[in-house]
């Protein structure tokens, strides 16, 4: 077979692989959406057997094919009311375009959680209030020629009058005032009730026991002398009632996880093992029952308001991907105390940092060899790329935040993403991660997608060389590693740069290719760095290259 044919075949395989991984929850949501609008045009028929990202008309996915970013069904003869838990489940949706149909009823309450850039609902029969929405990214809006009523939300008043025209009972800026139009607007009780019902349903799917876990964590106070770092377990104790109970709001995120039920006594007796303390706070492993283990982090020095905290948690709670650790809940006690918690699934395999620098090169009986390291690198890259598609900056990429699944030959997952926005980046507690920071972050403390790419490049260098960027942990000057990174980036690499355990592997040429990817990522000029999607593509291409074995 000639080289061009091999290339075409490889690309075909990669494309098929990329487009066959759409989140099952999003696939189900889309099928429910279209089946409930019974008179839809046959040309929009979607079937379970088809690949949504390539075969479903009107559906566009991100480049990796794991999440829907655009849904465009103009003049598709859609009839009826949009069901809840359909469009609202497309957490990374950027553009929703449903103009010139016969859609009616109110906008589902779960639209409030979307971060849309464009919303086009003109020339339908929608009624009721316009929904409160996350308008941070919303640039285009058209809801004209419907039957919306009452006051336009203040967050939508920035759009021109033409965006709302043709709604006779709609009022408020930029249209005529509600007083002048003599329109009486009832309270949005139905929307709030619906939102409350949603939360009850979500909690129900998770299991009452897990709700108890989060609620009690929010009300608990740790012992005045917290356990020393290490593996000595301590049980949690109930708070003094005089300190105030029930402070804090709990939200649960999931699409149907099932848990074994347990009671308050089980929780109060649960062993709380300190996993470690980092720049964001102290992490604990909670062994609630024999089967159920959770990971919690008690955040310290949170500087944002309760509203900002909850808003960020809602965004992070929507991240559903096999390569990121799901957020299961959060707690915000009050502005003045330290009762800010985040709750995650516990990942049993430990961190990449522990496997690289903890004196062991064994991963569940398997040596941390080249095959394992490239698998870890690719799965971590996919996790960060997914976050970027969903407009989430990780902000804290380092080997201790790359967790390894316990099963043999399983992939890594990305943890502690998006939390840096809760803190003052200039805090000295964050100095420990500066070995991973790009120059622009060191200068301006501005985290970005390109800064994440730089940090990921440092992570690749750490994976290849077993050098630890966190010099503060060893007493060395923290800026030695960034200087070494730039030296590597501009000098001809030699085989001696790799970890000694890798040099014996026959895939040295592939290691040099990964090294080149790392060098591309740590470019000083941000615009010269690749996107994380490009990084994933380069790593997959490297893995497919059978000519790299020497």
UniProtKB/TrEMBL annotation:
The chain crosses the membrane at residues 200-220. It is found in: Membrane. Residues 269-542 form the Protein kinase domain. PROSITE patterns: PROTEIN_KINASE_DOM. Residues 1-20 form the signal peptide. Keywords: Leucine-rich repeat, Membrane, Repeat, Signal, Transmembrane, Transmembrane helix. The keyword Transmembrane helix applies. InterPro entries: Kinase-like_dom_sf, Leu-rich_rpt, LRR_dom_sf, LRR_N_plant-typ, PRK1-6/SRF4-like, Prot_kinase_dom, Ser-Thr/Tyr_kinase_cat_dom. This is Protein kinase domain-containing protein. GO terms for cellular component: membrane. It comes from the Eukaryota. GO terms for molecular function: ATP binding; protein kinase activity.
């Amino acid at each position: 077979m000639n080289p061009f044919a091999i290339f075409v075949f490889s690309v075909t395989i990669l494309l098929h692989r990329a487009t066959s991984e759409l989140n099952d929850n999003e696939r189900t949501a889309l099928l429910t959406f279209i089946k409930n609008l019974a008179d839809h045009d046959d040309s929009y028929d979607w079937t379970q057997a088809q690949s949504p990202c390539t075969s479903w008309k009107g559906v566009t996915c991100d480049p990796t094919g794991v999440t829907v970013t655009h849904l465009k069904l103009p003049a598709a003869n859609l009839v009826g009311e949009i069901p809840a838990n359909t469009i609202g489940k497309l957490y990374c949706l950027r553009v929703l375009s449903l103009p010139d149909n016969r859609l009616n009823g109110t906008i589902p309450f779960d639209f409030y959680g979307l971060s849309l850039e464009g919303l086009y609902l003109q020339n339908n029969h929608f009624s009721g209030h316009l929904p409160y929405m996350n308008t941070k990214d919303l640039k285009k809006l058209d809801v004209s020629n419907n039957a919306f009523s009452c006051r336009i939300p203040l967050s939508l008043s920035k759009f021109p009058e033409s965006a709302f025209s043709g709604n006779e009972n709609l009022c408020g800026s930029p249209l005529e005032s509600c007083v002048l139009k003599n329109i009486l607007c009832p309270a949005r009780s139905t929307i709030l009730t619906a939102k409350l019902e949603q939360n009850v349903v979500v909690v129900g799917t998770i299991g009452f026991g897990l709700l108890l876990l989060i609620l009690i964590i929010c009300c608990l106070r740790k012992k005045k002398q917290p356990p020393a770092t290490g593996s000595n377990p301590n049980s949690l104790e109930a708070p003094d009632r005089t300190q105030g109970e029930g402070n804090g709001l709990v939200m649960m995120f999931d699409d149907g996880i099932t848990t074994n039920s347990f009671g308050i006594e089980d929780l109060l007796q649960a062993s709380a093992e300190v996993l470690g303390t980092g720049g964001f706070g102290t992490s604990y492993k909670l062994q609630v029952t024999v089967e159920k283990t959770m990971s919690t982090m008690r955040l310290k020095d949170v500087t944002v308001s309760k509203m900002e905290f909850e808003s960020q948690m809602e965004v992070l709670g929507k991240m559903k991907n096999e390569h990121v650790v799901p957020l299961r809940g959060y707690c915000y006690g009050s502005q003045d105390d330290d009762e800010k918690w985040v709750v995650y699934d516990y990942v049993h395999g430990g961190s990449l940092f522990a496997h690289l620098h903890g004196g062991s090169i064994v991963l569940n009986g398997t040596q941390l060899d080249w095959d394992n390291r490239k698998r870890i690198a690719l799965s971590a890259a996919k996790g960060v790329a997914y976050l970027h598609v969903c407009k989430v900056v990780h902000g804290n990429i380092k080997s201790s935040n790359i967790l390894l699944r316990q099963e043999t030959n399983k992939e890594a997952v990305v943890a502690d993403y998006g939390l840096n926005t809760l803190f003052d980046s200039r805090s000295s507690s964050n100095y420990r991660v500066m070995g991973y920071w790009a120059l622009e972050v060191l200068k301006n403390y501005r985290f970005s997608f390109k800064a994440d790419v730089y940090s990921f490049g440092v992570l690749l260098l750490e994976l290849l060389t077993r050098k630890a960027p966190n010099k503060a942990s060893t007493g060395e000057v923290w800026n030695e590693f960034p200087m070494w990174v730039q030296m590597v980036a501009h000098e001809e690499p030699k085989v001696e740069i790799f970890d000694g355990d890798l040099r014996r592997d026959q895939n040295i040429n592939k290691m040099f290719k990964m090294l080149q990817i790392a060098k591309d990522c740590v470019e000083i000029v941000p615009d010269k760095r690749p996107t994380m999607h490009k990084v994933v593509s380069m790593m997959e291409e490297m893995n497919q290259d059978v000519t790299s074995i020497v």
